[in-house]
Amino acid sequence: MAMATDVPKDSFRLSMLIYDTRYRSYTIQIVVLILFAMAVAWLLNNTVQNLAVRGKQFDYSFLWQRAGYDIGQQLIPYTNDSTHFRALLVGLLNTLVVAFWGCIFATILGVIVGVLRLSNNWLIGRLMTIYVEIFRNVPLLLWILLSYVILSETTPQPRDFRVTDEMAAAGEEPAASMMLFDTVAVTNRGTNIPAPLFDRGLGTLDLGFMTLNLTFWAILAVIAGSIWVNRRILASARAQQEATGDRPVTWWKSILVLFAPTILLLVALGFHLEIPELRGFNFAGGILVAHSFTALTIALSLYTAAFIAEIVRAGILAISRGQTEAAFALGLRPNRTMSLIILPQALRVIIPPLISQYLNLTKNTSLGIAVSYLDLRGTLGGISLNQTGRELECMLLMMLIYLSISLIISSLMNLYNKSVQLKAR
Amino acid sequence: MSDTHALTVTFVRDTMLPPAPPPVGERGAVKWMRENLFSTPLNIALTVVGLLAVYALVTAALPWWLNSVWNAGSLSECRQIVAASAGEGATGACWAMIRERWHQFLFGFYPPSQYWRPVLALGLLAAALAPVLFAGQKRNLTIVLGSVAVYLLVTLYLAATPAGAFALSIAVILGMIGLAQVQPGRLLWFTLLYPALCFWLLWGGSIWSPVVVMAGFALLYGVFRLASPVIGLAPGAAAGILVAVLWWLYLDIPTARALQQALPFGLQSVNSDQFGGFLLAIVIGVTGITFSLPIGILLALGRQSDMLIVKTLSVGFIEFIRGVPLITLLFTASLLLQYFLPPGTTFDIILRVIILVTFFAAAYLAEVIRGGLAALPRGQYEAADALGLDYWRAQRLIILPQALKVSIPAIVSTFIGLFKDTTLVAFVGLMDPLKGVTQIVRADINWKGIYWEPYIFVGAIFFIICFGMSRYSMYLEQKLKTDHR
Fold first, then answer.
1. What's B270-485's CATH class?
2. ipTM score of complex
3. For a tag site, which of A40, A272, B232, B370 has the least CB within 10 Å?
4. What would the pLDDT profile of B319-329 be if each residue is shown by its tens digit?
């Protein structure tokens, strides 16, 4: 029995670059790399030529020039004398604030709808199915436009709220009235909501490049501190439970720690609400929320909630009934079963698609252009772009900002995903 | 023992009693309502809330529907008619607007004398899709092709089609029905020809330009078939692509021009800015769907690949596209492409938008398909390796059929998303049905202040198409289900 002990030494031939699996992957990668480099070089070359033809430079110095336009909704101080960069920041904050409220409302509504769709109530189940199917199968743009049109064309004018002396004498009601105990007025110009005011505010701190509203940050710090202390209390209670078997009563401590410091601070700062009032032809006082913001938030929440509802439903359905039965067999009570057995497993299924829905919502805020909402796309990619004529710089910067938001969220998601993933072989 | 029993008991019943009917609370509508509407206090409360909601909705919407006006020249006339017929203060829908403007919602500013062309293209689209959607099923194919024939007969007649085109299209569809009975597989050839045909029908112009472009593909295939036995598969394919590219670059336009001079034949050409409404949405949507699937599959395979450079490039592309909103990509199409292409190049805005929409959908599809690939047990890959299949055979025969099957629902929902996103082209100046056309209608002095009717009309059409797609995906999922769970 002659064993083939030595592999015949084959000399290297050129055709092995294609037909030998040992070398083929290198060949393919090198070809791809060359093609890619050529494509990039071609694009760059074209861009340089085009810029030269148009007599333009590629630089971002325009960001520090005067913007010269007004923005209706501004979370940080901004005037038309501010720079384009400041306008960019205002726009970015406007994008984020819509995304923030949209995510919160969409999650609340989506979870409720998803759970109700699974309920054994026939009527409610059908109604929720109709809601989900209608909102999922019609473009988001329609919901944005429709809510904007309804808000701005069917709501009363400010003068409809007026009660004249003759009307008061005749006992007539005005054509329109304010909502929520006379604190909120929805007119065709916007929604007037009460504004929080402080008699003894802490003022602002000027850091040179930006100003800090000390009152706001103080309240935020106190709330964060309360939450932290509450977590410490719960942790020590758990430690004591594990050591002795008895769990100390903590609920009154938690309530005290969570609410008392904030309330005390608010009282100390002289907190009260400024309620909008009809003066002359318009409402004064309070905060005027533009309809573009309201419409965008409503439409994004309703649309995304339909998707979240499906995700929640799928997550709950994915947990087999045996899990619940096993938990009952172990003697766990229903709410312990929910919190210890069902939720941890359902969340593993729910959270990744949920976060990608949040991402979608954040990207969809750019549809605010349809209702002239000045978000990042409206400021940097809209008015700034048109005023300075720097398409290339503005578009690239805008894409970069959106991309960083998305990548930050998706890397968090991947971290979470790794930590809860079931380990396969 | 049994005997003693029979002797001691005087009466033994030897027939069964007829079963008593279940109690009233345990049968029929009462039982159903008790179980499905009023089982617990919470359920009762929910039912009451649900009924109230339905009642509020019906009382608000029903009179509005019932008082609909179909014949009027303006919104104020509509309101007068409603007030006259249903009394002062009554609400009524004004569908007269749809009656007057439906053609703009469907076709934009497409020349009315040429409406038969998009109508024909849509009918033939269904005929071209049928062999793909219902591969080899004679019965379904015949049903679809038969309904296409009926649809064409009716709509082409209504759209005042020239007699020649009418006869030719009916002949084509009847021929396809005949072919479906004999060799349903051959119908795929029509599907392959359809893109060029559709392009020619919609944009018009000389018939020779699409023919010459298709000749490039024929050339590619011919060279590949001739050369591959001699120089091997991969070099053969490369040679074919090279010849085809050279054809398209240098010989395409002169040949088309020469043929047009020799045999002038064509349709009235239509500019891209005349496209609008659902015609535009369907053109962008269908082209995007068709081309994004293969690109998405390639990207997903690239992302799963062992080759570092291919993998990095795929990941970079996918993450970049998924990380930015579609609107910014559309603005890239309208503002930035002029920077990236050689100076002086201009090409059609619809084409630019289609390219970027396709890339956008492809990146999302790649992630969906990657999910399907990851869901396959490792054993499938190992089994393919153990059988000695090479990479492409393993993918084609073992991996992709299973991975694609798993990801069908997600793929279809990406397609639905793409179709809904076609409305965003309004922001680069194209006339989509939702913002473009509706804005034009609402800007008209006659229809100023109308909002429910156009949005309900457009929304209903979108709903029908998207809902239809999701139902088809459920059918496909059921059909392809092979496990026995």
1. mainly alpha
2. 0.85
3. A40
4. 999 989 999 99
